[in-house]
Amino acid sequence: xxxxxxxxxxxxxxxxxxxxxxxxxxxxxxxxxxxxxxxxxxxxxxxxxxxxxxxxxxxxxxxxxxxxxxxxxxxxxxxxxxxxxxxxxxxxxxxxxxxxxxxxxxxxxxxxxxxxxxxxxxxxxxxxxxxxxxxxxxxxxxxxxxxxxxxxxxxxxxxxxxxxxxxxxxxxx
Length: 173
What we know:
Number of helices: 7
Helix content: over 70%
Radius of gyration: 16 Å
């Protein structure tokens, strides 16, 4: 139930962001977004770990693609790969980095991972690694958007029920 509500929220943000006017399109071209759906992914990483967050990110990309009419298109594959890879990276850095990595730091790492993954997948799909020349420009915008997503994701995390596994039983904390 918990994951289904987070998937629904992330998919709604994914579709909402696709239909809203986007100021980044002028600067970065079509497809550039704030990454509002990543707010939910970050909160899931903080509250439930890499496995749940990756599941939520993957389903969000699939449902968002279906609802937005981009399922199995070039943009879908970029979105799916970026969402899953960034969720995995944030989850594992959050787990092994512990208190040394803040929510904002995780989010900025996720934004950078998302952009690098998307450019790499795009380069693979079109068989032209010259696309990587855009990486510094995209990373310049990943930092402030990652910061924003980190702030909001940390706020959302405060409202999620936390659970821990002790002696084989899940207990709320």
